[in-house]
Amino acid sequence: WAQESALLQTHAALDQTASLGVDLDATDAMDRVGVEHISRLYRSPFDLARFLKNGISAIRAALPSFSQEVPNMSGGLMKMATKLIEAITQILPPEISQSPVFMKFAKDVNVTLQGLTGALELVDALKVYAKEGNTDMLVNVLTSALDQVASVANNDFLSNTGYHIARFMSALSDVLQGAGTSLDFIEEGEQLSGISSLFSGLMAAIDDLVPVDLQNNNTYVDIVKGVEGELGGMLRDVLTFVYGILDSGVCWKKSLERERFRPTLCGPGYHFADAQWCLPDSGGGKAVRATCLYNAETQGQWCLQPCAPGYAPFNRHCKQRCLGHYYVESPLLCGSERGSVAFAITEMIVKTGIAAVTKKGLVDIAIGAGFMLASTMTSVVSAIADFAKPFGHSQCPEIFAGMDHSSLR
Asked: Which of 1, 189, 344, 384 is deepest in the core (most CB within 10 A)?
């Protein structure tokens, strides 16, 4: 399906100029105007915060449709597409956003995202999220949608302007992936790890978009302040839904971050530019994504190292295996008997007793741990603190990690 989509986009790019009757020189001039406009806006932390906020709002727009008992995948993707087009419009100058070329791009985005409803693995992932509250499945669907929009922008739009839009979609994916890992840690009661993962994803997005000479603490503070309200709202939306599904009497799998780095390898005829992209040596043609080293696993826009013993790869991090008495597997939990996600288990370590259940308390703890920007992320910290109140789940014992099923049963 992905190969067919790429071929269709390539043919569309070849026919675009002719079908729209646009003069090549005029198109090149429009492209230059777009790049200059975007580059100028990205030098403003307040503008960049506004763009990222709009992008997060587009992601958030899909959540109500995805969170129904029977997920409305088509409806959610169309709401997301509409808001993404609005967000992209804010980045572009009027002579592009009101042009026939952009109208075609917007239509292509809608058609492409609607096409995701035919991807069975994504349909199944959304069903798992709606049934079990597995946030990794939700993140997979959302990042796939962002990747498709990036592909349309890079292959079927103004060449260099489309490249910048693709980078913007990649930045939103960084935010989303950070939020996904954060949700795993928050559900386990690991609040500081949740803040760290969320912050890392946001910083990766900012560093990919902000010019190097403006990458400083003042810039980060301004952007975080402008974004954190919408980001905290998205986090709260998902956590509220998960809380409505999961039973408190469970054994949570632990998560570990996987060491990750950006791909930097380029094929013949290309050279590495920045932010995981390779540009043609000739100066013409399309940008392509860089690839990972041979011993690393490629996941989205990152290269990931192998997991530690006792843990298995799970999307973009590592998840503990279910062993011993708690041998029954599910995406988030381990249980002692087969049945529903809410397994009956023995309580081990109660996290609620040590979790900060007020915003101020968690801010103080986070700052003490070195997260100085925690005081600017009030909506995010509030959502995390509130979620800790009703959840005091025990974690699966570390003693079982790395042991063989057959020796324990």
From this structure: 384
Report d(CA 190, CA 401) in Å as an integer. 18
pLDDT value at position 21?
47
Please say if the pLDDT value at position 10 is more than 60: no
Which tokens is 31 given?
Answer: 């492209």
- 220/203 Cα distance (integer angstroms): 8
**DSSP line for 164-188:** HHHHHHHHHHHHHHHHHHHHHHHHT
Specify the pLDDT at position 50.
Answer: 95
- Report d(CA 213, CA 207) in Å as an integer: 11
Tens of pLDDT along 154-187?
999 999 999 999 999 999 999 999 999 988 887 7
Instruction: Give the number of residues written for the chain.
Output: 409
Q: What's the whole-model pTM score?
A: 0.71
Query: Rg of the chain over CA atoms, in angstroms?
Result: 22
Strands (E), 79-169: none
Q: What does the pLDDT look like over 30-65, one tens digit per residue? A: 999 999 999 999 999 999 999 999 999 999 999 999
Name the helix (H) or strand (E) containing 251: strand 251-252
The number of beta carbons lying within 10 Å of the beta carbon of residue 216 is: 10
Tell me the CA distances in angstroms from 328 to 14, 243, 402, one per residue in order.
Answer: 52, 21, 16
Q: How far apart are the C-alpha atoms of 308 and 399, rounded to whole Å?
A: 14
- Provide the 8-state DSSP code for 305: P
